[in-house]
Amino acid sequence: xxxxxxxxxxxxxxxxxxxxxxxxxxxxxxxxxxxxxxxxxxxxxxxxxxxxxxxxxxxxxxxxxxxxxxxxxxxxxxxxxxxxxxxxxxxxxxxxxxxxxxxxxxxxxxxxxxxxxxxxxxxxxxxxxxxxxxxxxxxxxxxxxxxxxxxxxxxxxxxxxxxxxxxxxxxxxxx
Length: 175
What we know:
Low-confidence stretches: 27-52
Shape: elongated
CATH topology of the largest domain: Glutaredoxin
CATH architecture of the largest domain: 3-Layer(aba) Sandwich
CATH class of the largest domain: Alpha Beta
Strand content: 15-25%
Mean pLDDT: 82
Helix content: 40-55%
């Protein structure tokens, strides 16, 4: 029995020694390189957001929604009109894909549904008020689409949707 106990203790000691060696001899620069790579990837994504895939590019039938004008444009929209608010971040690839879909739907539903885009970028101090406002509305990810009617939130959906799936969501609330 003592032999088995001693063997188990020896295995545990060796495992601890191996873990300690890994922690001691791991290069701190490896972690920094990973962080630098992630920052560079994000910088590239941010640069891409200013091209034709810009999630915030407004079409002729869309309004710019901000924390300052949310009440006027959304909560006090004409009675009976559905308002769709696209809370996005320019660097978000899903937002970039959804931007043109939202614009196309704003043209298709022109005069029937109000579409607005709100830059709720959590990495841009110039729109911090928008981000804070969006967080108070329940923003948990990008993109998030809120549906308002007569000043009340009637629905919400997040993530990338097909145009048909988005139309289904709109039609659910546009009665």
